[in-house]
Design goal:
Blueprint: E1 13-17, H1 29-35, E2 39-45, H2 47-57, E3 67-71, H3 80-97, E4 103-108, H4 112-115, H5 119-130, E5 135-140, H6 150-162, E6 170-174, H7 179-192, E7 197-200, E8 215-219, H8 225-233, E9 237-238, H9 246-260, H10 265-271, H11 273-286, E10 294-297, H12 304-314, E11 318-324, H13 329-336, E12 344-349, H14 351-361, E13 365-368, H15 370-378, E14 383-385, H16 388-391, H17 400-421
Parallel strand pairs: 1-12, 2-3, 2-4, 4-5, 6-7, 6-8, 8-9, 10-11, 10-13, 11-12, 13-14
Helix pairs in contact: 6-8, 9-11, 9-12, 11-17
Amino acid sequence: MTAQMPSCLDAPVLRERGQHEVFCGLTSIIWLHRKMPDAFFLVIGSRTCAHLLQSAAGVMIFAEPRFGTAILEETDLAGLADAQDEIDSQVTRLLSRRSDIRRLFLVGSCPSEVIKLDLEKAAERLSLAHAPRVQVQAFSGSGIETTFTQGEDACLATMAAHLPSSDAQSLLVVGALPDVVQDQMLGLLDAIGIPNVTLLPNANADTPPGIGPNTHVALVQPFMGDTAAELTRRGAQMIPAPFPFGEAGTTAWLCAVAERFGISRDHVLSVTEAPRARARKAIAQAAEPLDGKSVFFFPDSQLEVPLARFLTRECGMRAVEIGTPFLHRGIVGSDLAEIAAGPTLSEGQDVDKQLDRARAARADLTVCGLGLANPLEAEGLTTKWAIELVFTPVHFYEQAGDLAGLFARPLRRRALLQAGAA
């Protein structure tokens, strides 16, 4: 892709620190547990945490779940040793009953009883007790300071710190994808000729990817700041690229990976000619209601910048504000360079101030969290639930039309309602 000048790459950022509206990082367990069938996520939390997981995951009828909550009741926090003993007891009971568990994650939450516990030390102690059959690691899913996708980042960063060292040349693709999308991605990389492709998260505890100076890392999710930092600390080399949303984004991502391995852009274009054509056609059909329309992003998932690039460059939209919980230029810089200068870039949130800006802008489409969508709809704004963009397959060529359709659907619905009222 050829960057527009001037772009948003060097645009000033409005940094806000106030009341924010997000889900907590425990939500990420709902997709992570599907990518690691030999893992179990034990949330150390409250009854509220248990209700959140149950509501997010639904009822699992045909399989025993691979996540649960060890509930800590409100108690005198002076006796933290008792809490550690209780964690040890719960883990021992769980592992004795579930021989299929090879990886156990202790997941911290936001109640004060949990914040004061050292779960990393607990994980080290339990790893020694249950080695070599079970690996025990810990990460935080607290929603106090993070957004819900950062639970995955915290989990993968912890995993990255424990991966074996390796000097072998490899491509490590980082970020959880739905199985059908992951298979498509691996097929494309194989057709291009990329050797030794590994994944994080990896499906099997017995076959972890190796990390070292010849590991080249391609992110498929933009909320991987801590994981990228840990992999870089261990010597891996990041591949800067736009994220694989839409036809242009996917092509740019594949070309960046290919270039790192000495494979020409012309070869990538030749191999991907058919899926690129399908993606362009699907986007053109789905995005017709989006052309010329404006969009306003509230901060939610950290997908906002690459999605704004997709909507403005491939669907003809105009971005008014692009809000994101955390703006990591080292990760989304390639996407920022593809967004024409003009929209406000905001990092963090002061929800009342941002609501005022959204009401003043009255964009054709407002992308926001569930808690804001209905009130804004009542005020006459057309909204899109941001969380649907995380739980729906949207990456790479075959999903490009579906991605455009997710944004077009609210505008089509509004048009039908207006036509019916006329």
